[in-house]
Amino acid sequence: MSIPAFGVGTFRLQGQVVIDSVRNALDVGYRAIDTAQIYENEADVGQAIAESGVPRDELFITTKIWVPNYGQDKLAASLKDSLAKLRTDYVDLTLIHWPAPGNGVSIAQTMTALAEAKAQGLTRQIGISNFPIAQTREAIAAVGREQIATNQIELSPYLQNAALTAFLKEQGITVTSYMTLAYGKVLRDPVINEIAQRHNATAAQVTLAWALQLGYCVIPSSTKRDNLASNLLAQQLRLTDEDMTQIAALERNGREVSPEGLAAVWD
């Protein structure tokens, strides 16, 4: 099974805001939706999906297990709770949200519990999120690299994660990019905007096309229907080698997200 290259994210969206965002996304053509237990919006996402009328077998739903639920005695039960909120019998992909070193549960234990949830039919695929190379190696050692569908990591023109993405490619693990627009910072970048002008595109489309051309999956979010529709058009934009080289030069290790106690040592 593969992961859709383009989905809609729901981070920081709750209540009617996320219901409207997901409903609009599905209406303009999205079929992959990314959420997480800690977003506290799974029930809202489930409502939006239920009200959309889109058949379940056309959708690809991802959620992520939060830290207190990593233990083998808690993970499957917490995922069942997520399924109830999402109004579905299964999700297509379940990720371990952060390595959370020192939380008292080893990565091996957590990954084994996640694989057991997959064996129970609660999730079609499993993976990891925010895992640097060392922790990814631990996950691979626990369940095998063929079991790990993706590592969802922060990636943008300002944070290109060359060592980690090269390792994941070597291992055959799909990269899912989140925060691809760096909280909107790259949308004001003169280089990105110059490229956008050359292609009669938006800065967001250029940035998302950059990630797609590198082989990454993307999950941008928006509360605006027009932006959701516009972002989808990035799939039709082909950047030149010169464009890609210019964007590669924007690297500045501009990490936006690294919560203390949750993140491991970055590569």
Quick take:
The chain has 267 residues and is α/β, with parallel strands linked by helices. It has helices at residues 15-28, 42-52, 75-86, 107-119, 133-143, 162-171, 190-199, 203-213, 225-232, 241-248; strands at residues 8-9, 32-34, 60-65, 91-96, 123-129, 148-154, 174-178, 217-218.
Blueprint of the fold:
Elements (H helix, E strand, L loop, with lengths): L7 E2 L5 H14 L3 E3 L7 H11 L7 E6 L9 H12 L4 E6 L10 H13 L3 E7 L3 H11 L4 E7 L7 H10 L2 E5 L11 H10 L3 H11 L3 E2 L6 H8 L8 H8 L19
Parallel strand pairs: 1-2, 2-3, 3-4, 4-5, 5-6, 6-7, 7-8
Helix pairs in contact: 1-2, 2-3, 4-5, 7-8
General description of the model:
There is one protein chain. The chain has an eight-stranded parallel beta sheet with strand order 1-2-3-4-5-6-7-8, covered by helices on one side. Helix 1 packs parallel to helix 2, helix 4 crosses helix 5 and helix 7 (190-199) packs across helix 8. It has helices at 15-28, 42-52, 75-86, 107-119, 133-143, 162-171, 190-199, 203-213, 225-232, 241-248, and strands at 8-9, 32-34, 60-65, 91-96, 123-129, 148-154, 174-178, 217-218. Strand 2, helix 2 and strand 3 form a beta-alpha-beta unit. By secondary structure, it is an alpha/beta fold. The protein has a domain at 8-184 and 216-221: NADP-dependent oxidoreductase domain (TIM Barrel), CATH 3.20.20. The mean pLDDT is 97.
